[in-house]
Amino acid sequence: MAITIDPRPTVFGDRMIVTGSYGAADINIDLSSMLASIDFAGANSSGVIATRDTTDTGATPATSTVVFAPDVRIDGTTIRISAGEVAAGGNPAAKAPEQAGTFIAIGRRS
Known about the structure:
Layout (H helix, E strand, L loop, with lengths): L3 E2 L4 E3 L2 E8 L5 E3 L4 E11 L4 E6 L7 E6 L2 E5 L2 E5 L18 E9 L1
Antiparallel strand pairs: 1-3, 2-3, 3-10, 4-9, 5-10, 6-7, 8-9
């Protein structure tokens, strides 16, 4: 699924609210054609949030469940979404989200 930006953004003064959706493998949402800067960004998974069982040898019981919600970062006029964990092998690059979802961004109009 590709990134889709809703056709009617909300404008108030020099600010704009942009909403849309992203696919399961989408990491970067470029909003440079609409916004000069982003003040806030958020994302929601479209389904049940993924969980993983992890082993914590210091806890009782030793296994616990960790919830991975979408991790959202702002990089200029781009929203970067990850699965809330690093890629396999400890690579510091963000892991792509496993589920599609929706996003919101509030920023200064371009």
